[in-house]
Amino acid sequence: MIKNLYSVTNIYERLIKPILREDKGVDAECLTNLSLKLLAFCSSKKEWGFISNYLEEIRNELCITDKKLNQEICGINFPNPVGLAAGFDKNGIAANIWQDFGFGFSELGTVTQYGQPGNPKPRLFRISNEQAALNRMGFNNNGADLFLKNFIRQNIKKKVDREKNCLGINFGKSKITSISNATDDYISSLKLLIPYCNYAAINVSSPNTEGLRKLQDPILLRELLKEIKKLPDCPPLFVKIAPDLSFKDIDKICQLINDEKINGIIATNTSLNRLGLENTLIKKTGTLLSEESGGLSGKPLRNKANKIIKYIHNIDKNLTLIGVGGIDSPETAWERITSGASLIQLYTGWIYKGPRLVPDILQGIIKQLNYYQISNIEEAVGSGLLWKN
Question: Does domain 2-380 have CATH number 3.40.190.10?
């Protein structure tokens, strides 16, 4: 009874979930930062007895192990297909803990060469009725040098010495760096952090850094990727794209990625499209969503993000796809996988649904695999198989 009272699920249901039902009240960014600081403390003090014991309880509660969920992709072992999306742990301060919450991998960042404060506050807003969020953070982070120090402080080993804890790092362009100098900016961060990441995500799609999406132009993107590929010990590379691209633009990016032998695509980032919520009131500011800047995430993005995954998979079944955007249930996770995503990532859905979402998704996937008599999740990717209750 006492253990159940202090389970991470019970703490979330009693303390966090009531806050998330209201758009006003505790500021969304403050709540995120408070939660992250607590997780960061635990991540850096895992050897302390009471923290070690509590993390073991969390693992027992949230971690699901099944060989059917295991995949080797780009030479990387993923124990399960559910990852933490970039944007939550921007500075890698809790890098050592995400596997304890059941994630098969985590993507940290976005990190830039130079530390930067991001856009003016308030810049993160709940839209609870729609299970959505609006953010215009602007790549706020402490920069690549301090990111590395955070890894060292947590005793994060280099990838060659790390059996577990699959880490991706999401790289972006510093605000003060011009588009013409973007390549040098990315490469500076990559050189520093490549030894620690199992894969690198090249973020050219955030809507909150002025001019960044210009790097999705095939000419500029090709130049950037060519130079990154020249780096010694270059890890598998994934390009993160926007949901607002046309299919014609996506075709060009897919061709480029094939030409340059890039490993895959992360689809998608947040959207500048208001997806039917134009007249939704942002209670924190008193203005309509159509009048606010920033990227929309969460449940409203589900259909758009899934269509893009399905489209890319249909035109090129050899590209590895990571699906993100609007995944908030076992059903939506299965939909994204059977549309063509080998891996999926959670952020907004995980915030609203809580830590039980990860094991619920994994148990749901296992149930579907068993129903269809599939021996490994790889066989379900792009299969189009429908969810069965």
Answer: no
Residue 206 known to be catalytic: yes
Read off the tokens for 61: 């509660």
SS3 category, 237: strand
Handedness of CA 240, 120, 94, 301 (dihedral sign): negative
174's CB contacts (< 8 A; 6+ apart) are: 112, 113, 114, 116, 139, 185
CA 162 to chain centre: 21
Taking alpha carbons only, the member of 175, 183, 268, 178 closest to residue 220 is 183
Burial class (CB in 10 A: 0-12, 13-18, 19+), 132: buried
Taking the C-alpha atoms of residue 297 and residue 279, their distance in angstroms, rounded to an integer, is 16
Long-range contacts of 23-31 (CB under 8 A, 24+ apart): 23/125, 23/126, 23/127, 23/128, 23/282, 23/283, 23/284, 24/283, 24/284, 27/122, 27/124, 27/284, 28/124, 28/125, 28/126, 28/133, 29/121, 29/122, 29/123, 29/124, 29/137
Choose the catalytic residue: 206, 271, 329, 342.
206
Q: Where are the extended beta strands (E) located within the chain? A: 71-73, 76-78, 82-84, 105-111, 124-127, 132-135, 167-171, 199-203, 237-241, 264-267, 281-282, 287-288, 295-298, 320-324, 343-346
Residue type, 4: N
Q: SS3 of 323, please? A: strand
**Could you tell me how many helices (H) and strands (E) the chain has, helices first?**
13, 15
Q: What global pTM score does this model have?
A: 0.97
**Spans of all domains in the chain:** 2-380
Mean per-residue pLDDT pooled into runs of 10, the chain (389 residues): 72 95 94 96 94 96 98 97 98 97 98 98 97 98 98 92 90 97 98 98 95 96 97 97 97 97 97 97 96 98 98 96 98 98 98 98 98 98 97
- Residue 15 tokens, joined: 């303390």
